[in-house]
């Protein structure tokens, strides 16, 4: 056999082996593709079966299955903190509450317990409109009015700026090829409550965002050629431990009121708090049911106070003396005067009166001015006591024993 015949024979064998291997790989790929397709069809059919309207569970979580919230009326002590929170629910224009105190004193529990007491509001408000709604009103188009409960939004410390302010809707950009805006937490908290736990540990860039929105009441987002502005007026509630760091003065001044929380020292009260907490942990539903009547009574009281707030008056001489106290204490700006007037009116409405008294001002003025005083490192007296002393001096008021 000549060399050429041998070479041709080997090439035929190699070619045949190559073709068989290629055919085998092609068949394997085809079988794999068929298997994958069958798997996708099974998953798709299963998904369609699960998500069918007849068999799909409702997306609305029943109230009983939600995480139980400790009742507001069951909280023992901490009257100053509870009063500040209630006054802000009655008049949101007070500007929020800053709660500072020792750890384990129920700051976060008290704030989150407000959920049950929040009243309903109309979702369409001519004062707080976006540009789209404003244009419809100018065209005299009818807009539906609905009622919804005031929402509370938690701002986590690790939140990104895009999550807080809003960002581009990536899904719409990829599927529809259009630039769309996806609202953030500030849009969700509009006309509601924005709660920041451990606010003194918040990153500086998020503090700047909160300052801008709290000052203007609007949030403007500039992202990838999109410019969107929407209303962002909310009740800003923050809590923290002063041992973990101080708050920036610019942000501290944005809080309407300041509440100081201390550890309960009375042994009987401490035992009561422990027992009530143990009852709640053992059976939250029964515990909440035992406080239902008190919760409903307080909720009705808040609703009546919100309704009668506009009719509450402050005598002119009391207004003058409030401003005199702020001036004597060298309070910067006029926020102290405005917040004290608003808080005194809200307290009078909560107590069912139509005129503010000196006792109302005495109750709220330390919380309105304490955090606005200039810090003196050599001063040993508490700033709240300084406010009370100046109030008694200007008003000629004798402190109750």
Write up what this structure looks like.
- With 401 residues, this protein is α/β, with parallel strands linked by helices.
- It folds into 2 domains: 73-270, P-loop containing nucleotide triphosphate hydrolases (Rossmann fold); 312-395, Orthogonal Bundle (Helicase, Ruva Protein, domain 3).
- The chain is 50% helix and 12% strand.
- The protein has helices at 3-50, 79-90, 107-112, 131-138, 161-165, 170-175, 185-188, 204-216, 249-252, 267-282, 284-290, 292-308, 316-328, 335-350, 358-369, 383-395; strands spanning 97-101, 120-122, 147-149, 152-154, 166-168, 181-183, 193-197, 218-223, 226-231, 235-240, 257-261.
- Strand 8 (218-223) and strand 9 (226-231) form a beta hairpin.
- The N and C termini lie far apart (127 Å).
- The model is unreliable at 1-19 and 26-65 (pLDDT under 50).
- One of its GO terms (molecular function) is ATP hydrolysis activity.
- The magnesium chelatase complex is a heterotrimer consisting of subunits CHLI, CHLD, AND CHLH. The magnesium chelatase complex is a heterotrimer consisting of subunits CHLI, CHLD and CHLH.
- Keywords: ATP-binding, Chlorophyll biosynthesis, Chloroplast, Ligase, Nucleotide-binding, Photosynthesis, Plastid.
- It comes from Ceratopteris richardii (Triangle waterfern).
């Amino acid at each position: 056999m000549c060399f050429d015949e041998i070479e041709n024979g080997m090439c035929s064998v190699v070619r045949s082996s190559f073709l068989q291997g290629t055919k085998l790989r092609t068949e394997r790929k085809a079988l794999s593709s068929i298997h994958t397709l069958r798997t996708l069809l099974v998953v798709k059919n299963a998904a369609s079966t699960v998500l069918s309207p007849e068999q799909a569970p409702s997306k609305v979580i029943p109230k009983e299955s939600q995480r139980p919230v400790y009742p507001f009326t069951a909280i023992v002590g901490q009257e100053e903190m509870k009063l500040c929170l209630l006054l802000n629910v009655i008049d949101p224009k007070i500007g929020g509450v800053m709660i500072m105190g020792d750890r384990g004193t129920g700051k976060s529990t008290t704030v989150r317990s407000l959920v049950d007491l929040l009243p309903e509001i109309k979702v369409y408000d001519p004062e707080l409109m976006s540009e789209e709604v404003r244009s419809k009103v100018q065209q005299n188009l009818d807009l539906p009015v609905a009622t919804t409960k005031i929402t509370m939004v938690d701002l986590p410390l690790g939140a990104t700026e895009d999550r807080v302010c809003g960002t581009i809707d990536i899904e719409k950009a990829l599927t529809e090829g259009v630039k769309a805006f996806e609202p953030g937490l500030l849009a969700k908290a509009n006309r509601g409550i924005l709660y920041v736990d451990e606010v003194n540990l918040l990153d500086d860039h998020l503090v700047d965002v909160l300052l801008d929105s709290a000052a203007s009441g609007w949030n403007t987002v500039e992202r990838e050629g999109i410019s969107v502005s929407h209303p962002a007026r909310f009740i800003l509630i923050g809590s923290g431990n002063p041992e973990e760091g101080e708050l920036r003065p610019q942000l501290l001044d944005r809080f309407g009121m300041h509440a100081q929380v201390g550890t309960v020292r009375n042994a009987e009260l401490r035992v009561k708090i422990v027992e009530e907490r143990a009852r709640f942990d053992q059976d939250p539903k029964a515990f909440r049911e035992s406080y239902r009547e008190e919760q409903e009574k307080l909720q009705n009281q808040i609703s009546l106070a919100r309704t009668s707030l506009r009719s509450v008056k402050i005598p002119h001489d009391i207004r003058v003396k409030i401003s005199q106290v702020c001036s004597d204490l060298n309070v910067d700006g006029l926020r102290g005067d405005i917040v004290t007037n608003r808080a005194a009116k809200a307290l009078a409405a909560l107590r069912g009166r139509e005129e503010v008294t000196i006792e109302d001002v005495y109750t709220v003025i330390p919380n309105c001015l304490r955090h606005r005083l200039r810090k003196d490192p050599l001063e040993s007296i508490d700033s709240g006591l300084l406010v009370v002393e100046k109030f008694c001096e200007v008003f000629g008021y004798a402190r109750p024993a």
